[in-house]
Amino acid sequence: MKTIKTLSTLLFTALLMLSCNQKSNKIIAQKDYNKYLEIKDNKSRDFAQGEINFWQKKYDKAPNQTSYLSLIASNYSKLFENTGNIKYLYKVEELLLQVNKEYHYQGVGSIRSLGRNYISQHRFKEALVLANKALAIGEGMKETQKLLFDVNMELGNYTDAEKNLKYLNDSRDFDYLIRVSKWNDHLGDLKTAISLMEKARDIAEINDNNSLKIWTYSNLGDLNGHAGNIQTSYDYYLKTLAVEPNNSYALKGIAWIAFSHEKDTKEANRIIDNISKRHHTPDFYLLKAQIAEYENDFLSKKTNLNDYFTMLNTINYGAMYNKYNTLIYADDKNTASKALEIAKIEIDHRPTPDSYDLLAWSYYNLGDSKKALAIEEEYVVGKSFEPKLNYHLATIYKANNLNEKVTPIKKELLKSTFELGPNLEKKIINL
C-alpha cells in the first residue's frame, strides 16, 4: 500500500509540474490584444485620406504647384501600408511619374520616392536605375546612399551595399542604425542586429517619433522571434499596437506566436480573420493554409490556396508574390516545372541567394538532386543564414547522401523551429 501511495504521489507531482510548465510556457493572452482586434475606426487611414483630400483641393486650384502631388503621393503610401490595398501603391507610382516628368527628372527627392515605390513593387532593377540617377545629380548624397543600400540588399549586391553603409557611418543616425542592423542580420549575427535596432529604438523614443517607434518595435518583434526570445517578441508587438492600434503586421506576429509557439490554431485563425477584414492581402490565405496543414485538414488547406491564387489572378500584384508561388508550386510534383519557370524569373529580378535557392529547390522537386546541389554550393552555401534556405540545403544534401553535412545544419535548424513553424519542424526532425 505504501509503495502504491508513493507512486501515486510521484505521478501526481509529475503531472502538476508538467501542468505548471505548460502554463508558464504560454505567452499570449487575449486580454492583451482583443481591443486591437475589435477596433471599428482607423484613425491613421482616415488621417491619410483627409490629407489627400486637403492637398488635392489645393492642387486643383493651383495645378502648377507640383509639390502638392508629392504630398498626395506620400499619403497614398500611408494608405497602402495601412490597408494593404495595392491600388494605392500604383496610385503613388502614377503621381510620382507625373512629378518627375514635370521636374524633368532633376529633383532627387521625387526620384528617390519613385525608387522606393519600385522597391515595394519588387521592381528592383528599375529602382537601382533611379537611385543611380539621383546619385549622378549629386544632391542629398546621404539619402541617396540609403536608397542604394536598400536596393543593393534586395538585388544581392552585398559588396556595393557594404560600401553604401560605410558612406553612411554615423552611430547617432537612426537611418544608419536600422540599416547596419539589417546588415548584421544578413550576416547571421542576430545579437548585434538586435542591439543596433535597440539603439535606433532609443532615438525614436527620445524624439517621441511615433512612426519610428512603430518601425523599431515591430522590427524588434521580428528579430527577437528569430532569436527565440518569444516573450520579448510578443511584448514588442504589443508596444507597436499601443502606438498604432491598426498595425496588422504586429497582429500577424501575434497570430504566428499563437500558431508556432503555442500550437493554438483556433486562436491564430481568429486573429487572422479579424485582421484580414481591414488589411486584406494574399499572404493571410497562405498562413491559414499552413495552419490547416498542421491540423491535417487538407481540404481547408486546398481551399485557402485556391483563394490565394484567385486573389492573385483578380488583382495585379506583379512580382510581389513570386517567391511564395515558387515554393507552393515546387512542393507539388505536378507543378514543380512551373516553379522552375518562376524561379528563373526571380533570379532575373533579384539574383540573391534566396532566388537561387528557389531554383535549386525547384530542381530538387523535379528529381534532379545533383543539379540542385550544384546550384546550392555555388550560390547559396555560406552566403545566407536564413533557416528556410538551410532546410532546403540540408534536404538536398540528404538526397545526395551527404549525411555528414546534414547533421550540423539540422542542429542549427532545431533552434529555429519557431521561425520555421510547426510543419517544417516535423520535417526537420525527420532529416
UniProtKB/TrEMBL annotation:
Presence of keyword DNA-binding: no
SUPFAM superfamilies listed in its UniProt record: TPR-like
Keywords: TPR repeat
Residues in TPR repeats: 214-247
InterPro entries linked: TPR-like_helical_dom_sf, TPR_rpt
Top-level division of the source organism's lineage: Bacteria
The protein, known as: Cell surface protein
Native organism: Flavobacterium soyangense
